[in-house]
Amino acid sequence: MSDALDKFKSETRAWLQENCPEEMRGPLRLDRDACWGGRKWTFKSDAQKVWLERMAAKGWTVPEWPKEYGGGGLSKDEAKILRSEMKKIKAYPPLSSFGIWMLGPALLKYGTEDQKLEHLPKIARGEIRWAQGYSEPNAGSDLASLATKCEDQGDHYLVTGQKVWTSYADEADWIFVLVRTDFSAKKHEGISFILVDMDQPGVTAKPIKLISGNSPFCETFFDAARAEKHNLVSDVNKGWSVAKYLLTHEREMISGFGGDVMRPMGDIAAQQIGLDDQGRLADSMLRSDVARMEIDGIAFMATMERIKDEAKAGQGVGANSSMLKYYGTELNKRRLELMMNSAGCDGLEWGAEGDVAAAWLRTKGNSIEGGTSEVQLNIISKRILDLPGA
Amino acid sequence: MAMVLNEEQEMLRDAARGFLADNAPVRQLRRLRDENNPDGFDRETWTAMAAMGWTGVLVPEDHDGVAMGYQAAGLIAEEMGRTLTASPYLSTAIMGATALSKFGSDSQKTEWLQRLATGDAFLAVAVDEGRKHAPSTVSTKAERSGNGFKLDGTKTFVADGSVADGLIVSARTEGAENDEDGITLFLVPRDADGVSAERKSMVDSRNSATIKLEGVELTADAVIGEVDGGHKPLEQILNAGRAGLAAEMSGSAQECLSQTVSYLQERKQFGQTIGSFQALQHRASHLYSEIELAKSIVMKSLQMLDIAPEMATLMVSAAKAKLGQVAQLSAQEAIQMHGGIGMTDEFDIGFFIKRIRVAEALYGDTNFHTERYAQIRGF
Ligand SMILES: Cc1cc2nc3c(=O)[nH]c(=O)nc-3n(C[C@H](O)[C@H](O)[C@H](O)COP(=O)(O)OP(=O)(O)OC[C@H]3O[C@@H](n4cnc5c(N)ncnc54)[C@H](O)[C@@H]3O)c2cc1C
């Protein structure tokens, strides 16, 4: 490692030690401990607020974004160091957000300078919370058949239609929406990508409860909702490219759930089930399932690392985000099935905070959200294996 | 360590791929099998590989090797897996070179390493005694006799045992049959009195032998490493072989997928290419995903052998277990998606499923390594 990176590492370690509150360390339970930000957000503790403010002041909620957009301006190597130092002290992410994971990367690539300056810093500081308005009742896997319409009113647009499965729409401030701007063009060629302020009478979000009980997603209705002209990203009818690019980031984010586990399954099972006099997990069938799953987990983590390194070196296959999404989410479902096996009747309890049952049920959505497993396999078939008619 | 090849490694891989495709394709293995070749490999090809430095890939430079490390050694094995090239590369250039360069005495190094590098000598590792891999179960006895030892026992599933000039033999000098302590490694000349090798006809048409040791007298110079302390070095030697086999299986799995995808693109039924059937697309794409994971874990295990060989066991076992599973899946799926033609001897896929089955079993099958993984992880 170069001297400069070494110095960055020791400074980062010292800064984190001093600035990351004790309460903001430990295994993260996404639903309970995450900080999503936004105007409607109430901090769960002072520590959560302080941690966000301190990290945002350094631009470290989005370490690799340029400084002028609220980021930390770090190189890939520096960002890697920051991540590993945070992991060492088990620091919570200061901010979780669709703005960071999805909209940000899309704006950095397709946004105008004004759009970046207006929206990115607010994402970085956790001031505005974003929702994703893609799916519709009749446009799920076949997303490009979406029908929410967007009419040009001269100096602004009016958006009318219905979105569904919109995660956290009831808690969000703004929403990025896929709309149809040309009904006569081919389905992929009449779509635009537009940013809409949800704080207006024309936008309503109705929560739908999940089988896991929490993390509500919504039906989102647009009734002649106003959108400003300067908030259309890329060109009119060119939204599909933005949409697809954003999806690759969403898939990477979701596939991450498959790899990064705070506590390996074997350790959890050893504690819950106990070991026999030979030091083996007392349930021998579970033991082999856990070992196989952990081995796949290591191989999956190594693959995430390899694909990142290949991308850095300018090699690799773009559509591999679909492979990661497919494998990572299926792996995560396997992990939670084993977690339920291991937890026994304790795992079947319902209602307490941090329930494994709720987490188990929630993972069933991982292979649906962001494009289903079947859709990812279709993409691999078409874009990587070059199979006909896929 | 970055998970990408450096320039030198890329050149090596490309050169290996080109050479093997031209000089040692599956056709060669088929010919060796059909003519019932007593060596089980092609000596001319071996000489050419030696000239390119492959046989010295793990031999130190002061013994005329190129010392490129395990990642490079694995790349060559992976390419050999694509073409199913039969050769004593794994036993000699990977395991033999590991044994002597890491644990050999000065005189053993002088006697053997240069000849390994030039391709003029072959070594084989004789460790197992029963049906299943169990390196700590050793009943072959080495009794002290005068200044040296007298060996008695039988070793099974010795890859390249029938062509080797020297055998690396594990024998018990102390302790009970299943103890890790009390195992000693010996370098036994193949032509020593009392050594006999019976070549077995194996499903993959590659070399494997049963070795009999009957009152084999050896001097103390024949010991590799410490008397009674053979277990640790043996693990490192085996780990090198296991990672090499995992790399080989990775190459074979990739080849099975690639041939299958080509077939899906070309074969027509019901008036369309069969690759347009989603049932097959999804099976192929799942296999692709599994192979991507397999490639990554192979790379990790080889990198571990380069950086921290004493700590590589967890990763090597994970890799051998994963590749055993993925490579078998790829061969099985390849046959199924080829339909009837996949079952014919005339078609190459059969050679893949046979070799993969042997590679999966050699030095510990998927269950063995999954078990070992769980043990090391403490559950
Ligand atoms: C927890 C969760 C959160 C979500 N959050 C959001 C959000 O914030 N914003 C948003 O816009 N959307 C969100 N979604 C919606 C999600 O993107 C869609 O549910 C998904 O794309 C699938 O669409 P669908 O539900 O209409 O299912 P359908 O498309 O009707 O699929 C039904 C079944 O058919 C299969 N199928 C469909 N087409 C094919 C095909 N061509 N080949 C093979 N199989 C096929 C599918 O794989 C699936 O198994 C969320 C979903 C979940 C579960």
Q: Major sheet of chain A: size, sense and barrel closure?
A: 4 strands, mixed
Q: What is the radius of gyration of chain A?
A: 22 Å
Low-confidence segments of chain A, given as residue ranges, are none
Q: SSE order of chain A in H/E notation? A: HHHHHHEEEEEEEEHHHHHH
Q: Output the structural class of chain B.
A: alpha+beta
CATH class label of the largest domain in chain A: Mainly Alpha
Shape of chain A: globular
Architecture overview:
- The complex is a heterodimer of chains A (390) and B (379).
- Chain A has 390 residues and is α+β, with helices and mostly antiparallel strands.
- Chain A folds into three domains: 94 residues, Butyryl-Coa Dehydrogenase, subunit A, domain 1 (Orthogonal Bundle), CATH 1.10.540; 109 residues, Butyryl-CoA Dehydrogenase, subunit A, domain 2, CATH 2.40.110; 126 residues, Up-down Bundle (Butyryl-CoA Dehydrogenase, subunit A, domain 3), CATH 1.20.140.
- In chain A, the strands form two sheets. Chain A has a four-stranded mixed beta sheet with strand order 1-4-5-8. Chain A has a four-stranded antiparallel beta sheet with strand order 2-3-7-6, with no helix packed on it.
- The relative contact order of chain A is 0.09.
- Chain B has 379 residues and is an alpha+beta fold.
- Chain B folds into three domains: 115 residues, Orthogonal Bundle (Butyryl-Coa Dehydrogenase, subunit A, domain 1); 105 residues, Butyryl-CoA Dehydrogenase, subunit A, domain 2; 145 residues, Butyryl-CoA Dehydrogenase, subunit A, domain 3 (Up-down Bundle), CATH 1.20.140.
- Chain B contains eleven helices and ten strands.
- In chain B, the strands form three sheets. A four-stranded mixed beta sheet of chain B has the order 1-4-5-8, with helices on one face. A four-stranded antiparallel beta sheet of chain B has the order 2-3-7-6, with no helix packed on it. In chain B, strands 9-10 form a two-stranded antiparallel sheet.
- In chain B, a hairpin with a 2-residue loop joins strand 2 and strand 3.
- In chain B, helix 5 packs antiparallel against helix 7 and helix 7 packs parallel to helix 9.
- The chains are: A alpha+beta (390), B alpha+beta (379).
- The interface between A and B is large, with 46 and 38 residues.
- The structure holds flavin-adenine dinucleotide (FAD).
- The site of flavin-adenine dinucleotide (FAD) has 19 residues of chain A, from strand 1, strand 3 and helix 12.
